[in-house]
Amino acid sequence: SLNCPSNYCGYAGVPTTMPMTDTQRFPAALPPLYVYNNDRRGMCPNEFLIGAQWGAWNGSMLVGILGGKELIRLQLNEAGNFVENRQKLKDDVFPAVRYRGLTLGPQGDLFMVADHGVIWRVSPVTTTAMTTATTTTAAGATT
What we know:
By secondary structure, the chain is an all-beta fold. 0% of the residues lie in helices and 35% in strands. It is globular and about 45 Å long. The chain has no helices and 8 strands. Strand 2 (61-65) and strand 3 form a beta hairpin.
Protein backbone atom coordinates (compact mmCIF):
# COMPACT_ATOMS: atom_id res chain seq x y z
CA SER A 1 0.00 0.00 0.00
CA LEU A 2 1.24 3.50 -0.83
CA ASN A 3 1.64 6.19 1.81
CA CYS A 4 -0.15 9.15 0.19
CA PRO A 5 -1.69 12.22 1.84
CA SER A 6 -5.50 12.16 1.60
CA ASN A 7 -5.26 8.94 -0.48
CA TYR A 8 -3.98 10.99 -3.45
CA CYS A 9 -0.70 9.66 -4.85
CA GLY A 10 -0.22 12.15 -7.64
CA TYR A 11 1.81 15.32 -7.16
CA ALA A 12 1.52 15.24 -3.34
CA GLY A 13 2.79 11.67 -2.93
CA VAL A 14 5.87 10.72 -0.96
CA PRO A 15 8.69 9.91 -3.45
CA THR A 16 10.24 7.24 -1.23
CA THR A 17 7.00 5.23 -1.36
CA MET A 18 6.18 6.00 -5.00
CA PRO A 19 8.64 4.29 -7.32
CA MET A 20 8.58 5.44 -10.92
CA THR A 21 8.02 1.83 -11.94
CA ASP A 22 6.54 -0.42 -9.28
CA THR A 23 7.84 -3.81 -10.35
CA GLN A 24 6.40 -5.50 -7.26
CA ARG A 25 2.83 -4.58 -8.19
CA PHE A 26 3.47 -4.76 -11.95
CA PRO A 27 6.20 -7.37 -12.53
CA ALA A 28 5.93 -7.18 -16.33
CA ALA A 29 6.47 -3.39 -16.38
CA LEU A 30 9.45 -2.08 -18.29
CA PRO A 31 11.93 0.00 -16.30
CA PRO A 32 12.18 3.69 -17.24
CA LEU A 33 14.93 4.72 -19.65
CA TYR A 34 15.57 7.90 -17.69
CA VAL A 35 14.81 9.05 -14.15
CA TYR A 36 15.05 12.72 -13.30
CA ASN A 37 16.14 12.30 -9.71
CA ASN A 38 16.68 15.88 -8.61
CA ASP A 39 15.09 17.78 -5.74
CA ARG A 40 12.73 19.36 -8.29
CA ARG A 41 10.65 16.61 -9.77
CA GLY A 42 7.78 16.81 -12.17
CA MET A 43 8.58 15.51 -15.64
CA CYS A 44 5.64 16.54 -17.75
CA PRO A 45 5.57 17.19 -21.47
CA ASN A 46 7.82 15.33 -23.85
CA GLU A 47 8.25 15.10 -27.59
CA PHE A 48 10.63 13.47 -30.03
CA LEU A 49 12.27 15.77 -32.58
CA ILE A 50 11.85 14.03 -35.91
CA GLY A 51 13.19 15.16 -39.27
CA ALA A 52 16.43 16.03 -41.03
CA GLN A 53 15.79 19.73 -40.32
CA TRP A 54 16.74 19.07 -36.67
CA GLY A 55 20.28 18.04 -37.68
CA ALA A 56 22.16 16.45 -34.77
CA TRP A 57 19.01 16.75 -32.63
CA ASN A 58 17.00 14.45 -34.94
CA GLY A 59 15.60 11.62 -32.83
CA SER A 60 16.25 13.43 -29.54
CA MET A 61 13.55 13.59 -26.90
CA LEU A 62 12.75 16.91 -25.21
CA VAL A 63 11.36 16.73 -21.67
CA GLY A 64 9.95 19.59 -19.63
CA ILE A 65 10.68 19.61 -15.88
CA LEU A 66 7.87 21.50 -14.14
CA GLY A 67 9.38 22.16 -10.71
CA GLY A 68 12.82 22.96 -12.08
CA LYS A 69 11.48 25.13 -14.92
CA GLU A 70 13.87 23.32 -17.23
CA LEU A 71 13.87 21.81 -20.67
CA ILE A 72 16.22 18.90 -21.19
CA ARG A 73 17.22 17.00 -24.32
CA LEU A 74 17.78 13.27 -24.13
CA GLN A 75 19.74 11.59 -26.90
CA LEU A 76 18.86 7.90 -27.08
CA ASN A 77 21.00 5.18 -28.62
CA GLU A 78 20.07 3.82 -32.04
CA ALA A 79 17.93 1.04 -30.53
CA GLY A 80 16.06 3.60 -28.41
CA ASN A 81 16.62 1.71 -25.18
CA PHE A 82 19.39 3.73 -23.49
CA VAL A 83 19.98 7.45 -22.83
CA GLU A 84 23.43 8.25 -24.22
CA ASN A 85 23.44 11.96 -23.43
CA ARG A 86 21.48 14.45 -21.31
CA GLN A 87 21.63 18.18 -21.99
CA LYS A 88 19.92 20.98 -20.07
CA LEU A 89 18.92 23.49 -22.72
CA LYS A 90 20.13 27.01 -22.11
CA ASP A 91 17.74 29.59 -20.68
CA ASP A 92 18.81 32.20 -23.26
CA VAL A 93 17.29 30.08 -26.04
CA PHE A 94 14.58 28.20 -24.14
CA PRO A 95 13.15 30.26 -21.24
CA ALA A 96 13.06 28.89 -17.70
CA VAL A 97 9.29 28.32 -17.46
CA ARG A 98 6.94 25.48 -16.56
CA TYR A 99 6.43 23.77 -19.92
CA ARG A 100 2.98 22.20 -20.20
CA GLY A 101 2.99 20.97 -23.77
CA LEU A 102 5.48 20.07 -26.50
CA THR A 103 4.34 18.90 -29.92
CA LEU A 104 5.64 18.82 -33.47
CA GLY A 105 3.62 20.63 -36.08
CA PRO A 106 2.90 19.31 -39.58
CA GLN A 107 5.97 21.08 -41.05
CA GLY A 108 8.25 19.76 -38.29
CA ASP A 109 8.40 22.90 -36.14
CA LEU A 110 8.11 22.43 -32.39
CA PHE A 111 5.25 24.11 -30.53
CA MET A 112 5.80 24.73 -26.82
CA VAL A 113 3.13 25.80 -24.29
CA ALA A 114 4.03 27.36 -20.94
CA ASP A 115 2.03 27.77 -17.72
CA HIS A 116 1.41 31.45 -18.28
CA GLY A 117 -0.42 30.85 -21.57
CA VAL A 118 2.40 31.60 -24.01
CA ILE A 119 2.82 29.40 -27.08
CA TRP A 120 6.17 29.35 -28.86
CA ARG A 121 6.86 28.03 -32.33
CA VAL A 122 10.43 26.74 -32.55
CA SER A 123 12.04 26.35 -35.96
CA PRO A 124 15.39 24.58 -36.25
CA VAL A 125 18.37 26.28 -37.86
CA THR A 126 21.08 23.83 -38.89
CA THR A 127 24.69 24.89 -39.41
CA THR A 128 27.80 22.79 -39.78
CA ALA A 129 28.85 23.69 -36.24
CA MET A 130 25.65 23.12 -34.30
CA THR A 131 21.89 23.00 -34.30
CA THR A 132 20.18 26.05 -32.84
CA ALA A 133 16.60 27.20 -32.84
CA THR A 134 14.64 30.36 -33.42
CA THR A 135 11.46 30.85 -31.46
CA THR A 136 8.34 32.74 -32.42
CA THR A 137 5.74 33.62 -29.79
CA ALA A 138 2.02 33.45 -30.41
CA ALA A 139 2.17 37.25 -30.86
CA GLY A 140 4.69 36.79 -33.67
CA ALA A 141 7.89 38.08 -32.05
CA THR A 142 11.03 36.13 -32.99
CA THR A 143 14.00 35.49 -30.71
